[in-house]
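Hi L.,

You mentioned the student needs an example of a multi-chain input paired with its predicted structure. This one should do, with 1025 residues in total across all chains.
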Amino acid sequence: MSSYRRFPWLFILPSLVGFLAFNAGPILISLLLSFTKWDIFNPLSLQAVKDSWIGFGNFVRMWQDPTLHKAFWNTLYYVLVAVPLEIFISLLVALGLNRDFPGVKLIRTLYLLPTVTSIVAIGLLWRWVLNPYVGPVNMFLRWAGRQVESFFTFLHLKTPAAIHWLASQGPGWLSDEHWAMPGIILAAVWAGIGFRMLIFLAGLQNIDKTYYEAAALDGAGPWQQFWNVTLPLLSPTVFLNTLLALIGGFQVFGLIYVMTGGGPLDATNVLLFYLYQKAFGIFPPDMGYASAIAWLLFAFLFALTVVQWQLRKRWVWEEA
Amino acid sequence: MKRWTLAVGMLALVLSLGLGMARTTKVVVAGWGGESEIAMYNELLKKFNASHPNIKAEFMHIPAKDYWTKITAMFAAGKAPDLFFTNNINFPALASKGVAAPLEPFIEKDGYDTGIFYQGILNAFKYEGRLMALPRDISNLVVYYNRDMLKEAGLPDPDPSWTWDDFLKYAKALTKEEGGKRTQWGVSFYTYFLFWEPWVWSNGGRWYSPDHSKFMLNNPVSVEGLQFYVDLRWKHHVAPTPAEAADRSAYSLFLGGKTGMIVDGRWRVPSLKKKAKFDWDIVPFPNGKAGSIVDIDGSGWAMSRQSRHKDAAWEVLKFLAGPEGSLAFTKGGLIIPAIGFDPKNPEATNAILKAFFQPPPPRHQQYFLTVNKTAIPTETFERWSEAQNLINKALGPVWEGKESVKSALDKIAPQVQKILDEVQAERKK
Amino acid sequence: MSKRKRRIADAVIFAVLLLGGLTMLVPFLWMISTSFKEPGSLFDLPIQLWPEKLHWENYQRVLTAVPFARWYFNSLVLALGLTFLNLTSGALAGYAFARFSWKGKDVMFLFSLITLMIPAHVLIIPLFIIMSRLGWIDTYYALVLPGLFDAFAIFLMRQNFISLPRELEEAALIDGATPWQIYWKIALPLAAPALATLGTFTFLGGWNAFLWPLIATNSIEMRPLTVGLAVFNTQFTTEWTVLMAGLSLATIPPIIVFLAAQKYFIRGLTLGSLKG
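Structure written out for the whole complex:
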């Protein structure tokens, strides 16, 4: 069926009104503000914008702002590690839950509980889980380290330093500059599995069972079935999920806010957290700079989305 | 016919509007607080409205953690509340933006006596010599101690004249070790600036030069004071390390009888009264080289410059900060009232003091008031919060025992100094 | 042999999944258990998973000391209002982008996607200024109307309509049905699963919203739960037990919505998968 070739006023109107009334204005204003050092106590007007106009001043400042650079690299670090992990683990969970066994609905529901639990409760609990001294993660690591250590002693070998470190101390997690981000990623991936899993599950359920039957007739084992049937047919969902996860990853905020406040020494300070600090965390707020950071973030997301969109034909099955 | 009804309608509208305005002026007071404080505000303002038929004062509650976000948004839209509650720490930033209306014109017109308030807290609300807010409360710090624990260690109640050395001696005596593991510590350890700045000041140090032109926290005297505090944890081991505290808060360690002393504020009294399973009391902060100097910070109400009903707002402000308001908030039990004494109204002031001095513990409640004589406000300025972020960040490894105070502060000194220089330049304009 | 191996593998997978799922339960249970702890308990570590004695007074307090019912109602208005607007306008626009073509369509779609990529934190103050010019601050309008446009909804619905089979719609067109009739009578009913999915996400989003409702309301009576409960988070202390009692009660509607939508859910997202 060829599309109707006209502008569907009736269909577009509600969204258009909403966009023009409540979205276009704020977006335009934030773009304007990114070129100013607007004093937030000075009621916003065209004159106020004009008076505080500094051209590309905020963007030049970003160029020279070491904390921003750190936040940028931290964001990349987070996205590059957390997004693949989240996609991979949630895909595994979805594959496991995409079958019929007693209690499967209950387990699916369990995985969605983090989405209704207070993020403060989640964050604080993870702080305890990752507590280097009394948290269960390090307790387990120390126990495991000691087992390995005694094994080495048993063989009259010198224990490697890494094992000894694990047995006696273990990672400092949120209080250690190098371990804080891994700690955040652990918590964020854990909390994000449910949502992504649901999207994968939906994709999996849509795959026609006859494909598997045909593959089985051809003598394909479980692995071959996965590589040759499941993955290609699921690729549109993988694409959707990856795109959403990337956009979400670049805007990670909540758990960092609760768990580390961007520390220690800015080790978990990401772009959105830095922006939040500039817009609401310091006093008086620096809305102009915050807006500039927002537009920088936007530029990256936009570029990334365009690239993804272009690349999808290469690997997304139904797009080819 | 149509035109006629329209005209009558318009007239009626104008009249009703005009009458309405003549009858009441609305004054909005913004503030934070828990639900008991909301009730106090509502009750107070009801009383005010009853005695002031021309004014209708209304309380606008804003949650404490997001207070400034909401306030700044209202200013940005030109819809600021007529009066807003503020602490002195954010105040220079506000005042320098011309957000608050100076109160002198009203004070002069009324012949209002600001002498009823403690001078220290009035100074904290002055910007370029002009008073910008009337104070409600004072927060300062004292040393809370577990009397049972002191008795057990054979220590007498400390005297206000005690020194840092005495403090360390007490802390050492209160620290217990069993099988190579410490099970009890002398003092709880806070890392928030309010709780460590007394160690800087009492040693004779400062954060900044008085005109905020120079960063002084990395000067030898300041560093020595702060390092003494850090050494309590990492050298003398009389304060729990993060490992030993295992994420229990400083206060909960004291409340749970794990530490013998804690430097803390008046707001702990209701909770300690209700929950402490031991006898406790307070004593002023120990004397360093420069004496016993803690912070005197506080909060009060400022009038926004955007307010269109300043005269009415002034009436509400006087009422809230005055004896009646002060009495109500003091009864709430969380605050130290900012009103010291009103010679014109001795009964009212006595009522406030009576409300403040609730039955012990602590036995030596007067220390909450006597420490105000030497206390000084936090050295805040226009871009204090930005500089504070830098300092907090730098001190992170110091609290973890990984870096010395000197090296951490020296590292960020140029960045802080740059902020100070910019502030100086801004002021000259 | 192979069958037995298979069964063992299944059991292992099941155990791992169950274990993973149980970890998801812990914070939820902790939230609920904290709500039963002695009032004034410090939300402190090491954690105590279950209180020695159930303290119902936290619930009593949250239900009586603050206008809890009103906040609950406001949250429902906010979440349901947003969901309704979102579904209506999102489905309409999604259909338009899927089935119509006009000059500038791509640019319009691009513009709508852009809104997903600009952090909301910098849009909130400008939006507040616009709303206060309109005089809508402290009204339900300010809370709900921004949901009129939502790029995520349009995107999801567009993908859904594109993936629907066109045969039915083509037949109707030949029979002389107008686009509006086709949308209303054929496409929309087929999209029910996608609508349920989108509805759940939007409901959750509205129910958990904090920053915008905080800025957009002035009076205590107009607040949703998220903002209202912040009253227990005061300058000096946080009343964790009472706060958690309120938050625990607040999880009921999302769970109901989730359970009700679950049977549509799973099929809904399938149809939303990208077929571009």
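You could point out the following to them. Chain A has one domain: 33-132+171-319. The first helix of chain A runs from residue 9 to 33.

Best wishes,
N.
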